[in-house]
Here is the input.
Amino acid sequence: MENASKALVIAGAIILVIVLITLGYNVIKNNTDIINKGNTNQAEIEAFNAEFEPFIGNNKRAADVKNLYSKIIAKNAAEESNNSDRRVKMYIDNDAIIDDKITDYSKVSGLKNSDTFKIEVKTYEKGCISEIKITKE
Here is the structure.
């Protein structure tokens, strides 16, 4: 009887250890996934910014602004479908053209091809371009 009782205690201890190891493994695995989702590596940041960097600078034409608008709309849609919180906003003379709630092409379509514009990054978020400001030169 004494041996049976010791055997049950040992078996219970073994089951408890297995449950604790499994629980620990799952906690570590889930936290690693969350941490990896939250962190954007440098290559992803550079790839994200590279889509917009050719448009940045002075003496840009209305066609550049229109192409940038299209690029931002497409990129924001792709980021949304990937459940990413990255979005790029676009402002012309401090008026929101692309924002969380606004997508206004009327001001972009009304730009004259003869005008030149300065396109600059207004803000970065976690290393990624988040706001682009456009002013007439």
